Amino acid sequence: QVQLVESGGGLVQPGGSLRLSCVASGSIFRVNLMGWYRQAPGNQRELVATITSGGTTNYAASVKGRFTISRDDAKNTVTVFLQMNSLKPEDTAVYYCKANILDRLRNTRDYWGQGTQVTVSS
User: In whole angstroms, what is the distance from residue 97 CA to residue 5 CA?
Assistant: First the structure.
């Protein structure tokens, strides 16, 4: 089994910062592409940022220059981070991490975290 567990959401004032974390663990052989998505009430889930196993990053235009995605590939777990600076009220959403994982049975599929709420408000 593979698990993705997120943490780091919360309430922050406009202009503030938050750091999200997502740990992938379990029966993992390799973690490929990882990413963060978000979904605001009444909206579809949208891409925020992705990072490949080689460290190549991609960002939505709305967060470029403010958010930074990174990852730490340890022996038994892989963690993806999202550093969010200069937060705006429109960044308010539930944030989900996603990982494409090859498990030890050599099956590849996408996994999602449970989501963490980020609220930007004064």
Answer: 9
